[in-house]
Amino acid sequence: MSYLKPKFRHPNLPTNALGYTVADYEGSISTLCAGCGHDSISSAIINACFQSSLEPHKIAKLSGIGCSSKMPTYFLGKSHGFNSVHGRMPSVATGASLANRGLTYIGISGDGDTASIGMGQFVHLIRRNVNMTYIVANNGCYGLTKGQDSATADLGSVSKYGAVNPFDGIDLASLAMLQGAGFVGRSFSGDKEQLEPLIRAAMSHQGFAFIDVVSPCVTFNNHQGSTKSYAETRENLDAMPLDFVPMREEITTQYDPGTTQGVTLHDGSVIHLHKASHEYRTNDRTAALNAVQMATQEGRILTGLLFLDPNSQNLNQNLNIASKPLNELGKNELCPGSRVLNSINEGLR
């Protein structure tokens, strides 16, 4: 099987304001499980960048470790990229943003990469207000290590192995708002009509922009009792030493603002998504937190733009970092001489 995409593209593909086609924002063919919600997120990022007419070579994509962190391979193949160690993507994003504020930074993470091993770095990334879009592909389990519950798994959900989760799940959207994030959103991987404009808005925000995306796992969270399931329980695995993931059709949905949509998953379970209405106030942090908590108590997942601070000051602005990338500064700018050094020293006395 080849994982290389053919170079041929239809000559009449539509172009954006910069003359790029959507193919210019694509990456390699995905090797994730067929029907994985993560691929829908990758597609949404591709379309968002195309529609926003961003130059691919002025985008930097960063990730940690996990199924979600493989995603940057599958989009923006002509952009800068850095796959860091588990939970440490925020450090790389912070350093890169300070070194070159002229790039658009997109961080891709998962519920394990962010809510467990990377929680400390995630919180400080918010606190420092690094200018980037941070997307969590949230499926409530560790797919790379065979489906254990992650820190975002809901209380009472049943793992693939039959164990009931006795702990409350971490609500990353609420945490981001509590820590002061200036842009917080939540969506469902199968709702591209909502997800794509949400990503476009996040990339235009000055400061840290966070999007929590419910992205069902087709392999390790598709059983009866899971609250984030997506596909049927596989059969006859006890007799087979090999693992096989059946092909499933992707679940998609579309519904109006202010309404609740029940989405029936392949195993027969239902999740209830509620899209914020037009009257929802996005600039009230306390009201946004209350709305998220109220929806959780009612068994719903509130989606859409949850909070926005239009006056956010990002890390580069707060530290007065040079607007010109450090690698483009000349010798005279980097080493201005003893006169400037003496002036700096005098100012510190």
Give a verbal description of the structure.
The chain has 349 residues and is an alpha/beta fold. It has one domain: Rossmann fold (3-Layer(aba) Sandwich), CATH 3.40.50.970. 26% of the residues lie in helices and 17% in strands. It contains 10 helices and 11 strands. It has helices at 37-51, 89-99, 111-115, 119-128, 172-178, 192-204, 285-297, 315-318, 331-334, 338-347; strands spanning 59-63, 80-83, 104-110, 132-138, 141-142, 148-149, 183-188, 208-214, 260-264, 270-275, 301-308. The strands form 2 sheets. Strands 2-1-3-4-8-7-11-10-9 form a 9-stranded mixed sheet, sandwiched between helices. α6 links the parallel β7 (183-188) and β8. The termini are far apart.
Q: What percent of residues are in strands?
A: 15-25%
What topology, given as strand order, has the largest sheet?
A: 2-1-3-4-8-7-11-10-9
The coarse overall form would be globular
What's the CATH architecture name?
A: 3-Layer(aba) Sandwich
Quaternary structure type: single chain
Predict the CATH topology. Answer: Rossmann fold
Per CATH, the superfamily is Thiamin diphosphate (ThDP)-binding fold, Pyr/PP domains
Q: Please count the beta strands (DSSP E, at least 2 residues each).
A: 11
Question: Biggest β-sheet: count, sense, barrel?
Answer: 9 strands, mixed
